[in-house]
Amino acid sequence: MSHAADGRVLIRWLTMVVALALSVAACGGGDAPDDAGSGTQDGDPDGTGDGGDAGSVGDVRLAAPADCVVNPFCAPGLRRVYGVDARAALLPLDPDQVVEAVLRGDATLGVVFSADPALALEREPSLVVLEDDLGMHGAENVVPLIRRPAIDRLGSSIVAALDAISAQLETADLARVLDAAADERDGAIATWVSEHGPFGDGEGTVTLGAQSFTENRVVTEIYAASLASAGYDASVFDVEGFRPYAVDALVFGDVDVIIDYAASSLEFLSGYQGVATADTGETIELLARFADYRDIDVLAPSPAASANEFVMESATAAELGVSRLSQLDLILPSAPPDVDDDDTLLSIGSGPDDLGVGFVGERVVALEVRLLELGYDPGPADGVFDQETRVAVVALQQCRGLVPDGVVGPATQE
User: Fold this and answer.
1) Are 361 and 230 within one domain?
2) 160 phi and psi, to 5 degrees?
3) Under DSSP, is residue 277 helix (H, G, I), strand (E, B) or coil?
4) pTM for the full predicted model
5) Does a structural domain hold residue 375?
6) Which of 7, 10, 173, 295 has its CA 20 to 30 A from that of 325?
7) Coil, helix or strand for 145?
């Protein structure tokens, strides 16, 4: 990876810090909505300083990755489909820490990936998965996204190789690699590659971008090792963040390929419209349409899938009488009646005025200038909507009480 790419990562982190400071100043030092942070990270959702019992109604804690507040299959999904508001209950944790927090009683419930060995391999029998009885979840099949310039450079053989890898990867395979000790995972990956290859015959340098959580790093390493076995000089680059950073790195050529999850990727690229469904084919078709705006091809999905699952410790679930997501209204408050996501969840490309990561031109320059006038630093007004611009847009949206999706739709433009 070039020094320029390394510098971009540093700039992103510095920009986030600057944008946060500007956001606090612009919002008057505390008028941001709950989505922007309300002091709940210390497990004290009511602000009284009394942590209380994680199983007590009114003192519920939801252990989940920090992006739960904008993830359509986390807090927004619970609000939209089940009518409950989980934002104040959020206990932001690294995905690797959620299971332990739930079993230890630090959290009433948690969000765990379905490919986690605790679920996929039933390593934690005391965990209860709450039934998604109203159908909130989408098809979260593992799927490679590749830049078209990479296909032009490497030829159709790279597509064939990635498709061959995807065809062989099952959820249980991913779970078994994740179940291996950290210092044994390379060996577990090598074993999988030798048992499931060959994956074609190619050449050339391929950089794969991995998001900053264990499962995505591991599945990306599986693809990279498989490509290496097919003759490619394949490497993995940590994008130092979650999906926004991975997509940014892909769009601007820091990486050639990212390995993502179909429904979540679709929701991000569409501006969180709520269009992903449980039908894999339908979700992939829509994902390809929105990826096309960014010169990205969506390849064949894998049978392997990893969706958000809401889990509870069995005794806690029995005590509270919760076995289905529709019963969360027993322990979580109702969603405010004035919450309406539709005004801010328009898709990139669904209207002529929408802007998001990857867009360029005079309209982006005008946006950058306006952000600077409002006190939000999008970086240089160069007409490129990159991650710096997105951070500034998110800060503005948080300040104004909009969903912080980083997409400039009609509500944000107002």
Assistant:
1) no
2) -60, -40
3) coil
4) 0.71
5) yes
6) 173
7) strand
